[in-house]
Amino acid sequence: MSINLDSWRQLPAAQQPEWPDRGELDKVVAELQGLPPLVFAGECDNLKADLAAVARGEAFVLQGGDCAETFAGATADDVRNKLKTLLQMAIVLTYAAKVPVVKIGRMAGQFAKPRSKNTEIRDGVELPAYRGDMVNGFDFTPESRVPDPWRLLRAYHSSAVTLNLARAFTKGGYADLRQVHAWNQDFVIESPAGKRYEQLAREIDQALAFMRACGAEPEEFHSVEFYSSHEALILDYDRALTRIDSRTGQPYDVSAHMVWIGERTRQLDSAHVEFFSRIRNPIGVKLGPTTTPEDALALIDKLNPDNEAGRLTFITRMGAPKIREHLPALVEKVTASGAQVAWICDPMHGNTFEAPSGHKTRRLDDVLNEVAGFFEVHRDLGTHPGGIHIEFTGDDVTECVGGGAEIVEDDLALRYETACDPRLNRGQSLDLAFRVAELYRS
Ligand code: PEP
Ligand code: MN
Hints:
Helix content: 25-40%
Bound molecules: phosphoenolpyruvate, manganese (II) ion
Shape: globular
Number of strands: 14
Strand content: 5-15%
Order of helices and strands: HHEHEEEHHEHEEEHEHEHEEEHEH
């Protein structure tokens, strides 16, 4: 029996662009359908197995990248800097917390954004909101804000370029553990996080030298597994890239290893939940502070009826002041139901506020506080704090406040470069990794 991959079309799909010309969209979709997969179904299954280990409490997820990737950002430098930061964070966690880390980029496909308002007003001028490079342009002009379906095709090619770089960097020697110092090299020398990292890298060197002297040189030290993920928001795109796996006859969204449903599109009878119920990738669902245990259980029934470990990850994003109050009931009821899910903390999206300068920002302290709350709740309930999901960049931007190299609200304008939400910079990301390692150990 063939699986209906278009059942979602009968249901309400929130946050979809109003394409000016459906005929053009059809042409793009036809072209996307003929293009090769970006990832293989077997790789998605490998990630599912890794996430099953997370659900069992044996591994930790580090998922992160830009809020919104841009086509202009698909350069060797940008991709390398993000990967370098991710690798540094992962090594801090692996070495300091002694836990295997599953590395997933919000990369190679994170080009579409849900928006709370349909329009944006600047100096009295109102234009359609920017919805990610996959949909329209960031420039504040009427022309650039018109949704253009050909951007879906650019998103595919940009993802291919990014993934190619990521595969080369992680398999071609750059991710070799002997490079732990190299990843830190161009870091601001006086930065507190950089110094702290350097100390840890020296210890790793010692451990490696000891192992080599003993004759041990395991394969795992020379490359890392890196997975891609994005919010599968624009259903025409993800549907066009869904293929039947020749090994199993099952459908996979081959635009990324993992895809997730955002807080704004996770309604049980939504097109997004319906589409996700049909694909076999490991999937995530964001859960905000208004989520009830019943909502979570209904999502489990619909999205993981066979209770397959690794299939479903809940990414909670409650906000620092709310997590200790709202998370316990969710985790308790889901655990009591016997459902196998991985729990990940997104400490970014519940902690956004507007600085007096008008910049959207987040405080590193709030981010750390939400992560601490996440650990507390899971420790109290005897469940596993399975990972973190963050927005970061490998550059020294000034978008979030706080951190070892203290960025204050007045600094925000210095290097505010995000196309959407404020990201942690490299130092702040490392500060966070050290803190998570402490929480994990305690
Ligand atoms: C995001 O991840 O950028 C996002 C919009 O998150 P959420 O769906 O949790 O609001
Ligand atoms: Mn975001």
